[in-house]
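Input.
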Amino acid sequence: MTAITAKNFGARATAALLTGTMLSGIVCGTAQAQEVTPPATEAQQTAPAQQQTQQPVIKSLTIEGTQRLEAATVLSYTRLRVGQPYDNASLDQAIKDLHASDLMTVESISGAESGHIVIHIRENPIINRVLLEGNKHLKEDKITPEIHLAPRQIFTRAAVRADVARIVELYRRQGRFAAVVEPQMVQLDQNRVDVVFEITEGPKSKVRQINIIGNEEFSDGELRGEMATKQARFWTILSSNTSYDQDRLAYDQQKLRQFYLTEGYADFRVVSAIAELTPDKRDFIITYVVEEGERYKFGPVTVDSAVRDFDEDRVAASLPFGEGDWYNAQQVEDAVEQLSELAGAYGYAFADVQPEFSRDAETRTMSLNFHIAEANRTYIERIEITGNTQTRDEVIRREFRVAEGDAFNSFMVRRSQDRINSLGYFQEGFEIEQKPGSSPDRIVLGANVEERPTGELTLSAGFSSLERFLVSASIRQRNFRGMGQTLSASVDYSSYSKSVELGFTEPYLFDHNIALGGTLYRRDLNAFNYIGSDRNTTYSQVSTGFQIVSGIPLTEYWTLSGRYNFQLDDVTLDEATFYTDGECDPLKAGRYYCDAIGERITSLIGLSLIFDSLNSRIRPSAGHRLVLGLDFAGLGGDVRYVRGKVDFDKYWSLGSGFIFSTSAEGGYIHSLEDSRGEGIDPVRITDRFWLGEPQFRGFDIRGVGPRVQRLYYSGDPSDGSQALITDQDRIVDDALGGKAYYLTKAELEIPLGAGAREMGLRPSIFVQAGALFNMTRPRPTFTFEQATGPGGELLYNDDGSPTLLPYSTPVTDANGNELYYNTYTNSEGAEAVRLTTCSVGYAADPGDPCVGSASNTAYLNTTQPFFERYVGDTARPRITVGIGVNWNSPFGPLRLDIAKAILTQPGDDPKLVTFNVGTQF
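Output.
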């Protein structure tokens, strides 16, 4: 039987089809036609098949050039098999299949004429290493996971091209559109290669210009100010918003629309936004085409409520806008939220508030009706608490202001959320989830918490402008045993203070809403002043005692707190520096410090009335806090006084991460003791208020308030050249504290980018004003004798001030004998000085006879004349402005402030820069 090829078979089929068609036409066209063409003979059917050309068959298959691969593995990627026919198309397909395997490259195929097929291949090399060069801004750990090439993989040029494209895309995401990646291949032995991506990163592509076309009512500058993207200028060098970002481009369009809608332009639209890359690929030029449209005002504003508890007219009148006001889309959104919260306060958790707009293009007004759909009063079905592994459920549940079965109240739910956030045990921004219950009038409250560490172990050493070198160690657990208890212990040491403290607080005593805590402590404080750059300790105060504090809530926001404090104070002065003959010497220490020394016991009871609506006690952004405190000292002990203090703080969230806060505090202390003498304030120095660093930024420690400044005289009193030394570095400045003070502050916390937030950077700008005052004017330490002339007349200096004589007192030995000194020549022939109790002659030991007739010079303590001025005791405000930043640095918490005192009073001690590292602030 002769084989029929597909080609001839197709021809015959076509002929038969044509014949059939013709016959059909004849039959249909001529009913009388009776003759039919006879069928083709067998010889006629087989004639074309005999003319067919025979297709070659593969007689053998051979693979050459393999090193790692088996020949059978290579053949498995093709359709070629021995004994099968082949043609040029099948050989071409085999080449394509082998290339597609990514394992090899086909160099040639021979033997196609004879049927003995030989395929010559070259195996693709194995990758030994993948190296990146020139990547400075995008590190390897960011690039390597994004590319596919890796050691021990097969090298292909297609994979290299794909990885080049991936790396370029990574740089474009960073705003580096000029980045160039050149792949290099380094040939190694054993058919291995190193792949090297040589990267030229190029500069970050900035936004050179933002053009706005079509704006008439607002300038380009005003509109650019609303955008997140900023033009690259020298003053924006630290901003990350000057680089081009396609997502930010879409966001800016939304910001423009939002701005115009808040200004009343309800028809505003962005026609187009085009970003063009400059030819050098360094910068972008962005062009917005906008249509502002007409400005609208509010028409009639009504409320249509299907909820029976709503007084529609009263609710409409409470909205922050009305008919005739300029249309503001943001106010509409706020009103929807306000009405939803109001419905929630009435117990309708799922109230549907829909604003219905009616626009009048002729009068350019936007009428608005808030439709509140009918809703069922909602009840709390259950409260679900999840995610807490350490904290007990009861600790979270007791902060809820609603219980299962209560009517839903959105206000109380939000208050519960704030109280849980204030614990500081869980993630920032915790929110209570509201889920539908088993029926339409039921709701489930979910508290899905994410616990964060509440234990703090601190071992640090650092340096601060206040305390110089310091070392601290503390341990604190704010959620002890998962029950919300606080347990703490700390030790601090610095050149300014030393302290040891132990404390424990139980917030819910016996499962009742009563807090009870106690503290044991010992604190050593060294007060000091500066003479020039030398720091001099004035007095030391050692305080040892304990305090018990209790708090009882009166209402949701009001709390009454009571405390009892027992403290032993020991105030001393350095005897070697400030004592003469075993007594405090006012000429050395100042009379005000000599009056302060001694031991005393303070037994104090106090009450505080606290109002607290802050949304978080850790980092508040809304709400306020008021503390009214009154202390009475005199329940036994040696000290009696009444002290009152008020402290107020308020916070506003301004949106976009901005937080504005104000604070005001003040206090007054009144002694209940009798006068302790003329010029001695009845309130002891250890009980007074102090003002300065760190609470009043812009001033040194104790840099504000009443003080005594001692200015010494220079020159010879005999020639009239005596004058006061007014050099600030040589003035002795002793702060005395005050009995009354006030301090106010306004501060704006500025948000930074996500990277800065992760680092814990929180910058702010602030202004402060305050004063410390109301002290008894201290009596002069000493009155120096005025010098007289030969005739007994009083002498005056050239400037008209009286000429004062130094004050001298004899120096005595341990037995009270006055000492004298004389000069003599020692055994080495040098002149030396020796002390003796003899006014004439010399005696080696006191009491021995004085030998000789030479007169000796009295050994005297001489105090140069000085002038004391009392300054700073005024209620006039001191004002400072500045910037500050909190940073949770790797070295520990850091606070840096740069504050400039723009209004001071005589005697104040300003300070521009203050910082603390390695200690809590």
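The first helix runs from residue 6 to 29.
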